[in-house]
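ARCHIVE CARD
Drawer: 12
Card no.: 0347
Subject: one protein chain, sequence and derived structure
Cross-reference: see card 0346
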Amino acid sequence: MSGNKTLRQKGIGCAQSQDREAQKKPRFSIDELEKALNDSMN
């Protein structure tokens, strides 16, 4: 998959690459979570 330039340009790679990228990013920030909770209560 990683050799396919078109797919890579669209952000599609092999599952291992996608997993590695996903683990680099924080799943959510506390600020965003708190804001979402506050918004849902109002």
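Annotation on reverse: Residues 5-41 form one domain. The radius of gyration is 16 Å.
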